[in-house]
Each structure stands twice: as C-alpha cells, then as structure tokens.
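Minimal example, chain plus fe (ii) ion.
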Amino acid sequence: MSQSTTQSGFQAERIDTSSKWYDLFQKGVELGTWNVEKLFDEVGFEEDRAIWESLEPGERKQIRYLLSGFLDGEFAVGEDASHHLQRIAGAPCFDDNEEMEMYMTMFTLTEHKHTQFLDVYMHEVMGEQDVFADLNPKRGGARIPIVQATGLGEIFDRQGQLTARAAHSRDPVDIAKALTVYHMIVEGLLARGGFYSINKLSRNAPLPLLNHGFKFISTDEGRHMTHGVEALSELIAKERAGEPEFQGVSQAIVDVLYENVPAVADFGYMFTDAVDDPLEINFNDLLMRVGHLIDGQFNEALDLDMDHRTVVGRVADRHQECLERDIDDAVRTYRDLYQRKRGVEAAADGGR
Ligand SMILES: [Fe+2]
Ligand SMILES: [Fe+2]
C-alpha cells in the first residue's frame, strides 16, 4: 500500500514519507552533509591562526578548555550513536520505525563530522597538544586532563553506560533514561550552553573558521534535539495512554535530569571562573541560559513538571564544589599519569 504524500509530494511503498523522522532524515541529507574539509579549504586556517597567536595566554586557555570539553563530548556521542542509538531506534517500543532508523544514520554521520572538525581545528590552529589520544584504543584515547579533572568525563561515562544498557534491554524505561542523558543533558544543556559561550566569546576573539564550523554544528544539533524530544514524547504518550511496559518513563526522565544536571557546572567551570573568564562568558549568564533551556525542554516540549530553580540550585552547588577543589592540581595529576603511561616527558606548556 502506498504511503501518504509528503511536503515534496513523493510517495513510497515501504517507507512512510509522511513520517516526521523521514522529514528529519531528508533535512539531514540536505543540511547535514556539509563537508568539513571543504570548509577548511574555503575559509582557511590563516586568520584563525593569526588571531589565536594574538590572544593572551589566559584567553587561549579559556578557549582550549571549552573546545576540549566539546572534543571529548563529540567523540563520546559519536561512539554511543553508532554503537547503541542505532539499536535503540530499532526497538519494538518505537513500533519498528524504519524512518527513525534511517534518520539515525544521518545523526551518527554528523556526530563524527563534529569530532572531525574539532580535532583538525584544534591541531591546525592551536598546535599539537593532545598527547593522550593513543592511551585507550577502545575510546580512541584517554580523556583530556581538564575534562577528567572537572568531573565532566563522568557524564560521558554515564551516557555510555545508559545507552549500552538500553540498547541491550530495549526496555522503554531504560531507553527513556538513555535518551534523557544523551539528548536532553549532553546535547540539550551542555552543547547548547557551549554554543552560547562560543557566541559570547567571539566578540572578544572573533575566530572566523571556528564560528563557521559551530554554525553548522549547532544547526545539526538542533535536529538532534528535535529527534530526542520526539522520541521521548512518544514514550511519555504511551505511558499516559496506560500501556503497562511504559509506566515509569516520566519519573525516569526526572530522576536522570536531577542526577546528572550538575555536569553543567563541570563544563562551565572549564571556561569561566577556572580561568578568570578573560573572554567574559560569565558563569551566571550561562546558568540563566541553562535555566531557560530546562524550562523549554522539560516543561514545554515534554510537558513534564520540572522546577528549574531546583535544577539550577543543584548546578550552583556543584559549581561551588568545583571552586573549592584544586582543579589545576587535578589537571597536573592526570597529565602526569597519562604521560607516565606513554613513557614521555611532561609537556613544557602544560597542554590542554
Ligand atoms: Fe555533535
Ligand atoms: Fe548531537
């Protein structure tokens, strides 16, 4: 039987071209196939290198920390998308949604391109810094010391554990937990908080290639968020319709948010107070922004009852804990540890 008509008017036999995931797939094909190497060729590295050289050491440190969080984060989401999300999209609770599985291929492609952009950009513009990449072949290298030292690495570990478990069990509640940490927290709060910070710092450090790349990345992430909200909404709707195996989905989403939202403070610490905020990102502005995002994602988009003040309070508490810890010392410890494992001497300028 032919499926119904889409915006473009095409119909198909096996694919539902009126599906919202078909639409996302098609948008991904149109918009998500920007070519990272072509962007490097077209915009070039020269201007970014010149601006990078002109920055103060503290300003460079702030940008390097911010991009380090992105690099390790993009790597982790790319791995978990290809290993686990693809299998989750094929779970029975999504009703053999072929179009969602099609969309996931575009999703995974874009995550790997984000890693590609960041890894090459950091190497070409900021110089050789990452001496930790060969330590853990399974994950493509040890985490960058600042990511490990702030505790941000834990959210990526949690994402890996929850997506792996959900891919294995294909249980709706496990899937709700996995998608919450992946789409709502890592993509929805951390990455979007990061985009906000990149925008803000570009007033003081206008790096044209970096800004170009991040425009593409944030557009891609917008589609990823739409997918996450749609998938979670479907699970919530089935719970509200009384389907037995979906009971507990909403509570699981709330629990995962409260448990993991302090990661926002770990990420924020890396580029605000930790480095005296020379590029004027301002942690309190970031918190406000995150508060609005939480309202939009959980209360409005998912129609859950989330108190954003409670959440922001948890982030602020974690931020205070970070301020009371000696993160610089922890960075040195991780760096020394990694370098001992590789059997190399300590880098002169401290690396990332
Ligand atoms: Fe990404
Ligand atoms: Fe993403």
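Confidence is low (pLDDT under 50) at residues 1-6, 346-352. The longest helix spans residues 57-89.
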